[in-house]
Amino acid sequence: MINSINALPSLTITIKFFAVYRDCYGEDTQQRTIPANATVSDVLDQLIAEYPQLAQWRSLTRFGVNYQFVPPETRLNAGDEVVFIPPVSGG
Questions:
Q1: Is residue 17 included in any domain, yes or no?
Q2: Residue 34's closest CA among 87, 85, 74, 86?
Q3: Which of 49, 59, 79, 86 is deepest in the core (most CB within 10 A)?
């Protein structure tokens, strides 16, 4: 029998990458399993841990969850779509 007391609750979200985030990950979208009480900021911390060069964009990045801009302390729910939007330029 598996001891479910030791199993930490988790949830799955979809991350959409734009600009420099997409350049680092080489893809537009990624499914990710995160702890059940995670915030947008927690996910950003994971991304920066995987690609430290993203740290320079931390204070400039805007966040969206399910097509709404949100603050970084927003808690995530199963099935949420999270976007990280750094400043972009172009013409």
A1: yes
A2: 74
A3: 86
Domain that holds residue 51: 10-85
DSSP 26: S
Q: How far apart are CA 11 and CA 82, in angstroms?
A: 13
The one-letter code for the residue type at 90 is G
Does 4 fall in a domain? no
- Give the model's confidence band at 87: pLDDT under 50 very low, under 70 low, under 90 confident, else very high: confident
CB atoms within 10 A of CB 44: 20
CA distance 60 to 57: 5
Spatial separation of the C-alpha atoms in residues 1 and 91, rounded to whole Å = 60
pLDDT mean over 2-20: 81
Q: φ and ψ at 23, to 5 degrees?
A: -60, -45
Q: What is the DSSP letter of 89?
A: -
Q: Using one digit for the tens of pLDDT, what is the confidence trace for 52-75? A: 999 999 999 999 999 999 999 999
